[in-house]
Write a structure and sequence with these properties.
Blueprint: H1 4-18, H2 31-40, E1 48-51, E2 58-62, H3 68-77, H4 88-99, E3 100-105, E4 108-109, H5 123-128, H6 134-143, H7 146-160, H8 171-177
Helix pairs in contact: 3-4, 4-6, 4-7
C-alpha cells in the first residue's frame, strides 16, 4: 500500500530536482577580465574651451587629443630642423590651428552658412583675419598678440596632458591600506 502523502512529496522533490534553472549564473568577473575591459576602451580627452585674450567673449573649442607624431610634424613645420631652429610662435600657431574644432562667442558656437563649425581653415575665418594661410597667419591675426598665441598653445598642451606628472606609488603603503 502506498501512502499518497509521501508519493506527492517525492514527486515534488523529483520535479524540483529535474527543473533546469532558466537564468544562468554568470561566472564572477576576474580582475584580469576587468583590466581587459578597461584597456579596451579608448582614452580620449574631451573638448576644452580656450580664451582668446583681448577678444571679448570669444573662446576656441579645442580637442586636446595630441599624439607625439603630430607634435613632431608641428615642430618640423615650425622650423625645428632648419638652420634658424624652432620658432616658438609658429609652433604655437600649429598647436592652436591644428586642434581647433570650433569657435564660440557669447556662449554660443559659431557656424558657417552650411551649419559647419568654424576653424582656422574656414573661408569665413580666413576672410575676417585677412589671411591666406590658416596656420600661422589666421591664428596670429585672430589672437592679435604673439604672447597670447603662445599662452593659448601652452594651455592646450597642458590640457592634452603634456604637463601632467605621474606619481610613483610605494608598494608598502598599499599593503597598509588593505
Amino acid at each position: 500500500m502506498t501512502d499518497s502523502l509521501y508519493d506527492k512529496e517525492d514527486d515534488v522533490s523529483t520535479t524540483a530536482k529535474k527543473a533546469p534553472s532558466t537564468t544562468p549564473i554568470p561566472p564572477e568577473e576576474s580582475v584580469l577580465d576587468r583590466l581587459k575591459t578597461l584597456i579596451s576602451t579608448r582614452v580620449e580627452r574631451e573638448v576644452v574651451l580656450v580664451e582668446v585674450p583681448d577678444r571679448k567673449d570669444v573662446l576656441l573649442r579645442v580637442s586636446p587629443n595630441i599624439t607625439q607624431a603630430q607634435m613632431k610634424a608641428w615642430r618640423k613645420n615650425a622650423g625645428e630642423e632648419s638652420k634658424n631652429g624652432l620658432d616658438p610662435t609658429k609652433f604655437a600657431c600649429q598647436v592652436i590651428g591644428q586642434t581647433c574644432v570650433g569657435i564660440e562667442m557669447g556662449g554660443q558656437e559659431v557656424f558657417d552658412d552650411l551649419g559647419n563649425s568654424l576653424n582656422f581653415a574656414a573661408p569665413e575665418v580666413l576672410d575676417m583675419t585677412k589671411a591666406v594661410r590658416p596656420v600661422p597667419d589666421a591664428v596670429r591675426n585672430f589672437f592679435g598678440l604673439d604672447p597670447h598665441v603662445e599662452g593659448a598653445a601652452l594651455a592646450i598642451l597642458e590640457a592634452a596632458g603634456y604637463g601632467d606628472t605621474v606619481d610613483i606609488v610605494d608598494p608598502t603603503s598599499l599593503s597598509s591600506m588593505n
